[in-house]
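Sequence in, structure out.
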Amino acid sequence: MTSLAERYRDRLPLTEATPVVTLGEGSTPLLRAPRLSEKLGVELWLKWEGANPTGSFKDRGMTIAVSKAVEEGAGAVICASTGNTAASAAAYAARAGITAVILQPAGAVARGKIVQAQAVGARVLQVQGPFEVALRAARELANRGTHALVNSLNPHRLEGQKTAAFEIVEALDGPPDVLALPYGGGGNTRAFGLGFESGGAGTPRFLAGESSTRAYTMATAIRIAEPAHQADAEATVARSGGAIVSLSDEEILTSWRELAELEGLFCEPASAAGLAAVVKERPESGARVVCVITGHGLKDQEAAARLSTPPVSVPADPDAIAEAAA
């Protein structure tokens, strides 16, 4: 399988000297959503980024960021993370044979994501404070020259992430009318803007779904009070004629359940924010809409268990089973 870096080499900041660090990222499915399409009156597609190697869209950018870090002689990478960046940075660092240091905001990260980072040998440190405090510390260490920062402030991350826009255009033979996605730090919104704007085929209208309670939302992947890419993300949305859509946790959870129950797609709660934005904004009838589903549901098993119907205990009797299942 051709790596993402090789597939789009001519549109990425790579040189002949860049050692490509890959786990087979990219080429994720674009799935038609027939039941949700009928319900919403649009032609709805789901870009399933949970199919990336560590289960989220972060792998697209991390392959480029870590490849460039290795090219530049880095012996270690560092990031602050609410989870998905941690899992991705740790995996790609392990693949490259370098150290990964993860700064985790205390009490703000789903356990499944930290387990991923720990399993591949990352040094995980819990920082006393929110994400913004952890990010400042990571940047300070990177500025000392001891670690390469692989948060989305690293421009190579966004260059890799923009390839999802290329894949959507290729699959649909053009851009959709609307692109909807979660809005946490804003890096992915900016990356999709770069991808569509550089492709020459046109730019969809962006709907960026954010939590109305950013610092406290149960959708941990977008629990970021101060988006690092706020200005660029808002400018991208404004140029597209789109909107940043404020969502309650209940609106996000309703869409999370519908993705699972109507389309069989199990994502982490934050990944449903794009669909929730579509439900709230209601694009014109018949519009072609792509929702970016950013991370797999196994990333946040605690949330899934807490929000789902618990199993029912029954005797091993066919009649009892049939009655309970009715």
